[in-house]
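Board notes (copied after class):
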Amino acid sequence: LGGYINDRLGKLGMLLHLLLSTVPDCDTIVNMFSPFLERFLGHFEVWVRACLRLSPCPLKSTLLGTLQLPEPQREFLGRSITAFLQTHRTAIVKGDDPEMVQLWLRTLCLLLPEKEQALVSLALGDKYIPDLRLQWLSSTAIVTDDELLYSQRPVCIINLPTQTVRAGPGYNMFVVLRANFFDQVSLDPEKGQAQYSKGDVLKQTVHKTVAPVVRTMLEHTLPLPLRLREGYLLSWRRGLMAKAATVVRYHSLSLEASGPAGRLHPPPPNAHTESSISLNSDVGEAESVASQSPAGFMSALSSTGAHGSSHSLRSDIGPRTRRPSLE
């Protein structure tokens, strides 16, 4: 909630400052600024009402706690988890069956740290709320690009009736598009909103395959007795999240070094290969993850999405692996 308020108030302050410095008429400033303030207040109220803290979620109330999971549903779950991790654990689950949707939401919650489980809404909504980690929308709800760009993270959309998973660009490109969106809306609100409501900016693609590390996790977890699954999942999540944190830190440093978001350029191929970042577990390229740039890990994981590339991701994270060290 604090991050949501700070980000939105910062954007509102920038917009008001721009209007005060460029528009001489007071009434015009009020008329142009009021819709954005009303939108913020409307989102804030709905956001607070929807963000009810989840009760402790036992494994048996999730898909990973079921005794039998059919292969088609297992494949769909794997694609959903893959996209969920690639979008920094942010997703919309669309569907009209309350029991089934909540089962999926609780399953994805297993991949969230406890402090982020307050950012989950189990209530059916017809309007997207930015910055929720997980939320339930009706299967007919339409989410436009301008709504998604109000979020601080990229978002994947999991559609249960059609069993499709869609996700937009990765974090780096999302930051650029988001900055351009707010620049455009600040200069010309009406034209900016219309341009980003067409749905052509984020270009969401369908995830057709499962990341090997996720597939292996499912293959190792489901045959285990129920009493052993939770410990295995906890160990797997800790290892994977540590590596994800390393990649996020790498991209953050790349953004800082590249200057303004609108002029973002990818780092050279050999950037950071001589750094002291080491990854001791096996999420990444098949050999010697520590010797490559963390960008290699991100490209390997993300390439298993829309186009189904076959990067060799070793994926034996489990109780036998050591915790990653960031030296």
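Comment from the instructor: The longest helix spans residues 226-258. The first strand starts at residue 91 and ends at 94.
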